[in-house]
Design goal:
Length: 285
C-alpha cells in the first residue's frame, strides 16, 4: 500500500505534463486553472469522501477507522509533494509555443458545421454510449465474479495470467469502440466528439456498480448500517475510479488516432468540390 501511494504521488509530474499538453492542443488558454483542477479536483473528491466516511465510522463507534495521523500524512503528501509536482510538469509544457492544429481546423470549418443535434439525437447518443459499455465489460465479467468471491468469502483466486489477458482484451475493445464512436461523430460533423467519447468507455462503470450491488445484496448479509455505508462508499469510489480510467483509455487513443489519420488529409482535399463524374458515380451507388 505504501509503495502504491508513493508511486501515485510521484506520477503527479506526468499528470501535469499530459493534462496541460492535451489542454493546449484543444486551444485552451487558462492552463493554470486546468493545472489546479488536475491537482485538486479528483484527489480532493477521494480524500474528502474518505475523511467523511472515516468520521462517520468513528461517530458510530467502529473499530476499523483510520487514525488521524495517517490522514494527516496523506494530506501532507498531497499538498506538499503531489500538487507541486503537477504544477512543475504543467510549467514545462506551458513554456512551449501554443500551437493548436485542432483549434485552427475547428475555426476553418466553423462555417460548414451542421446545427447542434436535437434532444432526441442526444438521447440516442446516450443510449449508444451505454450500449458500448456492455461488450468490453463482458470480457471480464466472469473474473469479476471470482474476484468478489475472493474478497467476501476468502476463496482462492490464482488465475492472474488469464486475468491479465482478459484485461488486455477489455482495454483493446474499449479503445476500438471509442475510436469507432468518435469517427461516427466526426462523420456527422460534431466537433465536440471528445466529450462524447469519454462516456463510451466510462459509462460501463454504471453496469459494474449495479452488478457489485446485486452481488452483495444477493450473497452477503449486512445487518448494521455502518457496514452497509462502508460497502456502498467503497463501491462508489471503486466504480468512480473505473469510470475515470476507462474514460482516459477511450479519449487518448481516439485523439491520437485522429491526429495520425487526419494529418495526411489536406484542407484543400476536404474543401475540394466534387466533379460531375464523381457526383454521377455517387448517385449511382
Amino acid at each position: 500500500m505504501l509503495c502504491s501511494v508513493i508511486c501515485y504521488v510521484l506520477s503527479a509530474f506526468i499528470a501535469g505534463i499530459l493534462s496541460t499538453k492535451v489542454y493546449k492542443a484543444f486551444g485552451g488558454l487558462f492552463w493554470k486553472t486546468n493545472t489546479a483542477l488536475t491537482s485538486f479536483l479528483v484527489p480532493g473528491i477521494f480524500y474528502g469522501w474518505y475523511v467523511a466516511m472515516n468520521l462517520i465510522i468513528q461517530l458510530q463507534g467502529g473499530d476499523n477507522s483510520t487514525p488521524f495521523s495517517t490522514l494527516a500524512i496523506l494530506l501532507a503528501l498531497w499538498l506538499c509533494v503531489s500538487a507541486p509536482l503537477t504544477f512543475a510538469g504543467a510549467y514545462v509544457v506551458a513554456r512551449q509555443p501554443n500551437v493548436s492544429p485542432y483549434k485552427q481546423a475547428k475555426d476553418s470549418l466553423a462555417d460548414t458545421q451542421p446545427p447542434v443535434p436535437k434532444r432526441q439525437a442526444r438521447v440516442k447518443q446516450l443510449i449508444m454510449a451505454l450500449a458500448a459499455g456492455v461488450l468490453p465489460l463482458g470480457a471480464i465479467f466472469l473474473h469479476i465474479y471470482f474476484i468478489l468471491n475472493n474478497l467476501w468469502f476468502n476463496q482462492v483466486y490464482d488465475a492472474f495470467g488469464l486475468l491479465l489477458v482478459m484485461v488486455v482484451i477489455f482495454i483493446v475493445l474499449t479503445m476500438e469502440e471509442a475510436i469507432l464512436f468518435g469517427h461516427f461523430q466526426l462523420r456527422l460533423g460534431i466537433t465536440n466528439w471528445h466529450t462524447r467519447v469519454l462516456g463510451t468507455g466510462g459509462l460501463a462503470a454504471f453496469y459494474l456498480f449495479m452488478y457489485i450491488i446485486h452481488f452483495i445484496v444477493k450473497n452477503v448479509s449486512l445487518e448494521d448500517s455502518v457496514s452497509k455505508f462502508i460497502v456502498l462508499s467503497y463501491t462508489l469510489m471503486a466504480t468512480f475510479a473505473y469510470f475515470l480510467a476507462m474514460a482516459c483509455w477511450s479519449f487518448l487513443p481516439t485523439w491520437l488516432f485522429f491526429k495520425r489519420m487526419y494529418a495526411v488529409v489536406s484542407k484543400d482535399f476536404i474543401h475540394q468540390p466534387l466533379s460531375l463524374e464523381q457526383t454521377e458515380v455517387e448517385g449511382q451507388i
